Amino acid sequence: MDRSHSRKPIRTTALFVDYENLYQQATRYLKRTDNLNGQLADLLYSLRRYLLARRRFRVVLGRAYADFEQYDDGLAIQRVLAEQGIVPRMVPSSYEAPSRSLQLTIDALQTLQSHPEVQAFVVVSGNRSYLPLLEHLRGHGRQIALLQLTSPSDLVYERLGDRLLLDPRPILEHAGLRQLLAHLSGPVADTPPAPPPAFASLADDPDALKALELILEHFGQYEEVYLTPLLRKMSETFDETRVEPKELINRLEAAGAVRLERRRGFPYDYTVLILHEDHPDVRRLRETLASRPEPEPEASGDLSEEDHVEDTSGEEPSAF
Fold first, then answer.
1. Rounded to an integer, what distance in angstroms lies between the CA atom of residue 145 and that of residue 8?
2. 100/160 same-domain check
3. Pfam families from the entry (predicted)?
4. Residue 67 falls within a domain, yes or no?
5. Could you report the per-residue pLDDT of 60-100, keeping only the tens digit for each?
6. Are residues 71 and 165 in the same domain?
7. Does 5 reside within a domain?
8. Residue range(s) defining the domain that contains residue 127
9. CATH code of 233's domain
10. Number of separate domains in the chain
């Protein structure tokens, strides 16, 4: 079976974040707020990867709304958001109360008119549903999704349904924010934990299977694999005009063979890949490789400090 025809197409997506409302709700539901802006930036970073891996939504346009001057690290958070492709939109707190939500709504409607190529819209907030906006976008043939930090109301569940409401728990988990998740109280923390990843066979995806074998053969001795040297090794093996290494990692992620997690570092944050050892293809390939004679170590396999720095030149694979 040709996997390229069986997979859902990737949809270009616009992301709109009521950042101030998200921040306000987080301060209510967290016992500690140390580095909260940094944690929320990690949440949005992880969300983009979740959307690509689970929904096939690729964020091509992003906006975040807040009075960033009120935060001690307001300039830093604006820079981090901009590095993610999310444009900070300054809405002074001196404006009338609904100004922020109105600006977000106006920008989303303008995007609907001026960017017909955008096929999906995702809204992120603390406790605001933006229900009229989302229903309007859906009425114009766009796919929609809502991520609220707190549990949506019964009305929102009724009007949107479970499919369109994103659960923040797995996104927090895969962002490496388990401490943040542990401090959440209320409905979000009381819900049962996210289910374990579903495993899918790679038998019908020979390229992804070959990529998994490469990972195990050259990096399988590490608990965490730095993404930059891995992508470089994959580029030496695969014809990038036919299949991109990052897309192969996305396919391994979707099959449950690996997961990606973000790590903080200096001068740049970086991403690591972690193998799911219980995945049938991972187990089978490990057994196959273990039965082979051990090869001579390659000089190029050594990891330098430069290899630990994340390559930010292009879009990374998802973290889900």
1. 17
2. yes
3. NYN (PF01936)
4. yes
5. 999 999 999 988 888 988 998 998 899 999 988 777 667 88
6. yes
7. no
8. 11-185
9. 1.10.10.10
10. 2
Q: What is the 3-state secondary structure (H, E, C) of the chain?
A: CCHHHHCCCCEEEEEEECHHHHHHHHHHHCCCCCCHHHHHHHHHHHHHHHHHHHHCEEEEEEEEEECHHHCCCHHHHHHHHHHCCEEEEECCCCCCCCHHHHHHHHHHHHHHHHCCCCCEEEEEECCCCCHHHHHHHHHCCCEEEEEECCCCCHHHHHHHCHHHEECHHHHHHHCCCHHHHHHCCCHHHHCCCCCCCCCCCCCCCHHHHHHHHHHHHHHCCCCCEEHHHHHHHHHHHCCCCCCCHHHHHHHHHHCCCEEEEEECCCCCCEEEEEECCCCHHHHHHHHHHHCCCCCCCCHHHCCCHHHHCCCCCCCCCCCC
Note whether 233 and 84 are same-domain residues: no
pTM, two decimal places: 0.59
